Amino acid sequence: MKKKVLSVLLCAAMAAGMLAGCGGDDKASTDDANKPAASDADGSAAGKKFALVTKSAGNPYNEKEAEGFQQAIESIGGECIIKHPESATADAQVSVIQSLISQGVDSICIAANDENALQAALEDAMAAGIKVSCLDSKTNAASRMTFANQAGTTEIGQALMDAVYDIAGGEGDWAILSATSQATNQNAWIDAMKDIMENDSKYANLNLVEVAYGDDEPVKSTDQTQALLSKYPNLKVICAPTTVGIAAAAKVLQDQSSAVKLTGLGLPSEMAEYIGDDDAHSCPYMFLWNPIDVGRLGAYISAALVDGTITGAAGETFEAGDMPNSPYTIVDAGDGGTEVILGAPFKFDPTNIEEWKTVY
Amino acid sequence: MEKKSLWKRITGSREASLVIVLIVLCALISIKNPSFLALYNILEILKNNAVIMIMALGMLCVLLIGGIDISITSSLAFAGMTVGMLFKNGVIHSTLLGFIIAIAIGAACGFLIGLIIAKGNVTPIIATMGFMYIYRGFAYLVANSQWAGADALGGFKDFALESYLGFGVINNVLVIVIVCYIIFFILMKWTKFGRNIYAVGSNAEAAEISGIHVAHVKLAVYTLMGILAGLCGALAVTVYASAQPNMMQNKEMDVIAACVIGGVSMSGGRGSVGGALLGALILAVIAKALPLVGIDALAQNTVKGVIIIAVIVLNVVTQRMMDKNNLERREM
Amino acid sequence: MAGKSGRTIDATPKDVWKKNILSWEGMLVILFLLINIFCRCISPNYTMANVLREMPKYLSEIFLLFPMAYILMLGEIDISVGSTVCLSATIACIASNAGIPFPIVIVLTILTGAICGMVNGFILVKFPELPSMIVTLGTQIVFRGIAEIILGSGGSVSVTNTAGFRAIAGKIGPFPYIFFLVLISGAVFIVISIKTIFGRSLYAIGSNSRTSFYSGIKVKKVKFIVFTLMGIFAAIAALFLTSSLYGANTTTGNGFEMDAIAMAVFGGIATTGGKGRLIGGLISAFIIICLRIGLGQINMNPQVILIILGALLICAVLLPNVSAGLKLKKKS
Fold this sequence. Notes:
The complex is a heterotrimer of chains A (about 350), B (about 325) and C (about 325). Chain A is α/β, with parallel strands linked by helices and about 350 residues long. Chain A contains 12 helices and 15 strands. In chain A, β6, α7 and β7 (about 205-215) form a beta-alpha-beta unit. In chain A, α8 crosses α9. With about 325 residues, chain B is mainly α. Chain B has a domain at about 50-255. By secondary structure, chain C is mainly alpha-helical. Chain C has 15 helices and 4 strands. Chain C is globular. The chains are: A alpha/beta (about 350), B mainly alpha (about 325), C mainly alpha (about 325).
């Protein structure tokens, strides 16, 4: 009997709690539904809420993107919300998106942890009238309006391929050390590199021996780099298109004073120690784009989507404040959706690394 | 007679079967890739897994008293990240000071856990699960969205490259590993504290009655674990020349797995320093070997999991056979 | 509703009323109310409609809570559920993309989960010496590893035919189906745990496995069933999770095991086995969810949220122990 009473009591209290705690006014949600209509009429960004969802907390690269996003949004007078998910997974980002829908934001710009698994949440957001765009890593075409791409996939592939060609001296074995086997960006770049290598006879003497995955963990990246070195004694170049992997590989090569050289994509602040032309340094040069600019481009795209300048269709153009290539044009991304390309990847070599290592 | 007792001693020890597993693994790998057993490669394995190997010692003590600690890598990240940021911001420059601070932070983290478990009577897994979130959160807060990279760490990262502690022959990191193992071997085998740990783990009530202060032993063990986690925080920063708030996340399970593979019982009272060492080595060899023997990158995790299960099942099977043998011998 | 239950309470003797309020579950209900009021105060967007809309993704984790509570009652633990969710979700997506009718997709998914659970159950029953934590650590790596192999180099799959998943994500009024399903399955699990022989045997085994065995309880069978149940409910969670993702990847379900364990423990279920009531777990699940939603809406740093949850978890276990300790002192 006691137990029954207890259960009834508990159920009643829970139902009451739901109603008392969160019930009352459904007004806010109807407000949300009305918002987009109002914003279409008004072109200014003042009073609008722009949200950025990063890949994960505690990563300086993401932080720089957020910094750029915030700068740009504040310069046009909007309110900026930066949200980091609890962990670097799509699951965690879904909760963040749902929370942003509740807050009635006007736009969400997201660096996706997974191409597909955000679709349901982002569709919900678009249905609520929120303008959804991506930056850095895209979602599939159905769950975004457009995408701020840091650099064209082929351009990155070409730049990395040329770097490998140059450092290897035109021939020999080389290997790739990537992030996880699922990393969307890395896989796209690796595919682009393979394409370029197959279709241009210039690279015929280069031999890609293996694509290894360090899972963006220092320990595993170190293990994988050492494995590459002992498996392929004739290895000349390792290309690591990921910031954690390149730093781990650079340390292994430099500590061993290995003849194998490194290139790829890395953060200047992490890599400053390893970049140099002489034998004492493991990485002659590497590439990256400016994450601050990626964030700013994402912000301007969000703003243009919210004020109705663009809808995300290919061919549309928009102004992006004082950014170097402004106005930008939306182009077809080749996956059924559209994208905006920031520019060519930037080369970091011994002449400019000192200057950039303090920036990001 | 003497021969028999030696034979008995070999078959009677759990470690023997582990040594065999380790040898078989190494042999199989070196058939596929002869460079695996090169001295240089072995040293790399040891250095790369120094953190797991050292923490396995602390975990051994924790498991021996029937506890568990899943917050260790969070304490590690908190201590390592703090030291990394101190170097980055130019607050400290001395390597020794870096280690002392990391160890102090680790000790404080461990002490707090010990206090909650020993005095507050909270189940170890729950207490350490809570602190796993808390200390990891602290690491993120300390980091403030920054990493301490190789450039920022200055002279600290050279520690893992030099060998002044090992008289110019053995790498500093390995010296620390060896010293830790020697200390723990002595501690567990020949000191009162070590025997108290086994006593508490075998039967806490009996230990209490026979005059051992169980709460104090628990407190000491978790503090010890914290000290090792702090030490490993500093080590991880110097070995990988980088401090990130998510470093070694989820690796606490590797440490526990290393102990269990090494024959340490999770219900307390049974396990040895040698077992912990062998368990850690087997895990290290597996991790190192998977890319070397050319297993497809996508299948590496599955293979790793299957090997772990196989090794622990093998452990049980040999144990059963041993027990059966012993019984038969007794009957005779 | 409120009036009716109020009458029931008035009609019961006074001491029961007092006892219920002072019980852990009573405290949890009060805490639940306080949390909701607190969230309403800090966030203007904390409305019924918003909370219910944000809830489904979290609710899918509650499916894991029920069998996990059973497992904890047995004194075991299962840390492979996150991986089971991952593998089941992968199968669900791929099956659905292959054009298989949705009911069969559901069956296939649940079958996948059941097989995962049976593998755990089988190993644990065959080798009772092995701690469940290590076995499920191994299978955790293996299940996710298999999902990695299935997903291939992309590591991610999108649901092209979302009709079925959209259907199960439907709502009755403002309440999503999953909300009712969680409450119903919760009720079933609660009734089983307190009213049936099976439920009592859970507590019996958790309190003393050997005595239960000698008193005729089929310990192995119960263990096997509970672990299989865990797999099945992981698959159900995977189905609903997929309906709020429209895709699966190799990180799907990461960390779900810890969330489920935390909910159970916060609800007063001891990890040492034999203790606790499932109703507490259910209430605490809602407390954690509401707190997460509320703090998320004011854009609190996610790491700080984790610190708060960690601290809550420790307090939840520490406070009753401390107050019990104080009472003991008073008496003596």
